[in-house]
Amino acid sequence: MKKISTEFWQRAFLAFTVGLFLSCAARVSQAQELDRSKKPASGAPVTLRIPAIQMRTLKNGIKVAVLEQHELPLVAVRVVVDAAPTLDPTGKEGVSALTAAMLSEGTTTRTADQLAESFADLGNRVTPGGFTTVVPNVDSSMALLADMLLHPAFPAASLERLRQNNLVTLKRQLDQPGYLARRVFANTVWGPGHPYERTITESSLNAITRDDLVAFHGRYYRPQNVQFVVAGDVTPAAAVAMVEKAFGKWPAGGFKARYTIPAAKSAAAGTIYLYDRPNSPQSVLLVGGVGPARNTPDYYAIDVMNTALGGAFSSRLNLNLRETHSFTYGANSFFNYRMTPQPGEFYAASQVQTAKTDSALVEMVRELREIGGKRPLSAEEVSFAKSSAVKSLPLSFETVEQIASAGVSVLRDGLPLNYYNTLSASYRRVSAAQANAAAKKYVDPSHETIVVVGDRKQIEAGLRAAGLGPVVVVDENGKAVK
Fold first, then answer.
1. What is the distance between the alpha carbons of residues 264 and 227, in angstroms, rounded to a whole number?
2. Cross-strand partners of 272
3. Does 173 share its domain with 314?
4. Is the Cβ–Cβ distance between 282 and 353 less than 8 Å?
C-alpha cells in the first residue's frame, strides 16, 4: 500500500479549514441581514397524534387499556392498582406503601436476588408497577410481574429493613420546612383524623406487622381493583392474550376499594398558622384550601387560569415575588386532584427570605385577591396560557413510556377514553370570561388557609403587623401552642 505523505495531510487540513471559514463567514453575513427588530415567526404547530385507547376486559374482571404504537418494537406495560393510603387501618398508616414496596422483595418461588438475576437475564427491569421491554421479552417480563403481584412472600427481614429505611426518611422529612408546611396545611384544612390528614408516623410504622401486609394484599390486590395499560408494538388481541396468560387465573374476591371522605374542617378564615422553625434561613408560605374534584366541568378554565396565576415562569405570582421584588427563587400555584369524585386542594406556595416573610405574604395574598377581583386576567394572559397548554402536548407523547403514562392517567382519574384526543380543542374553547369565573370561584384568600413555617422570633411581629389576620402559633399537627 502506498504511504500517504505528511504534505498531503497538511494540504487536506488547510483545504478543510478554509472551507469551514468560508461557510461560517457566509452564515454570519446571512445573519447580519436579519431584521432583529422583528420577532421571528413561529413554525407550524406540530400535529398531535395520540393512539386511541381500546378497552378490553378479562373473564375475571381485569380491565386492559391498549394503545397501539408500532414505530418501534417496544411494549410498555403499566399496572394501576386502586389501593390508596386512605385505606390504611387507623394507627397503622403506611400499610399500603409498605405492601407495594414489599412486592419486589421476593415471591413464594423467587428471592429478591433471584428476581434481580431474572431482570439481568432479560436486560430490562420489571417492577410491581410494570415494565418496558422489546417485543420478544414481553411474555417473560409479564410472568415476573405476575409472580410479584400474585405471590409475594413478604419476608420478615425485608419488612424490617424497609421499616428502618422509612423511619430514617421520616426523621429527615420532619426537618424539611416544605414537609412541615404541608402537614400543618393538611391539619388546618381537613382536620385531625381526616383521611387526607392522616400520615405515616414513627408509631404507625412500628405497629405494622407482616400479617397486616398479607391482609391488605389479600383484601385489595384483586382483579376488581386492578387495571392494565399496554402500549406500543402490540394489538388489542395480543395484549389481552398476554395479560390473560399471566393473570387470567387471578381469583376474584377481597373488597372493592371504596373511599368515604368526610367534609373538610372549616379553618378560621384569614388566620395565619405559624409553625416555629428556629434559625430557619427561609420561610415557607402556603395559601390555599379545598379544591374541586377532577371531573369538575370547569377543569379546563381552572387550568388556564392557574397557568396565568402561578403555573408558569411568566405567571403573576412568579413575576411579582421573584422578578419584581426578589423575595424568592420561585413562586407557584397548584390544583392537586385526586381520583374522581374525591375533592382536591388548591394552594399557592413559595420559599422566601426570612426578613421578607411578611412582605412576600402580603404580595402573594394581593395577587390571589386581585385575580378574582379588580385585576382579572387579560385576553393576552388567557391566550398565552391556552397556547402553552396546547403546544406542550406533543412533548408528552414522544415515547412508548409517555403514551403508557397517558393511559394510566385516563384510568386513574376516570377520564373519557377520548380525553387526550379532545384536549387541544377543550383548551382552545376556554374564554377569558370562563377563566376569570374560575378565579372568582376557586381563588379567594378570604376563605383560604395561610400557613407559614419559619423562625418565629424573626417573623412573628411582622406577620402580625401586616394586618392580614390573626396569627396562631401551632405544632406540626395544627394544634395551637403558646
1. 30
2. 450, 471
3. no
4. yes
